[in-house]
User: Fold this.
Amino acid sequence: MNAVPRQLIPRATALTNALQRIIGSFGTAVMATVLTARENFQFATMAQTVTPFSPGVHLAMARVQAMASLEHLPAALAQQMNLMMLYRSVALTSAVRAFDDTFYFGTLVCLPAFVAALFVRNNLKRAPGGAPGAAMME
Assistant:
């Protein structure tokens, strides 16, 4: 803003505010799209690897079967409970992994801006006398 003539400062401020909102909305949309895509990918990947023959899945299914037999539930209901438990576990794990992937993506997008910000210089110098509010341009 220090390069804008004094009479154009209100317009520059309005433009800056509008651009911040537009770019913020665009960034939110991009991150939501990445999150959705990664969640679908992670769910598909995990659904391929989680089978009834996996040791962890087999153990969990045995526990549900044992609980169902103690409660005198029909075998079909126990099988349905197993499927619901597996689906919920895969969905939860894929969502967590999708959030991880999205944050990694956001980090990679912000990293160049952070590096560029390290090279930004302050062109203002203190006026002779060192008053905090008094500054002059080079």
User: Anything to note?
Assistant: The first helix runs from residue 9 to 49. The two ends are 15 Å apart (CA to CA).
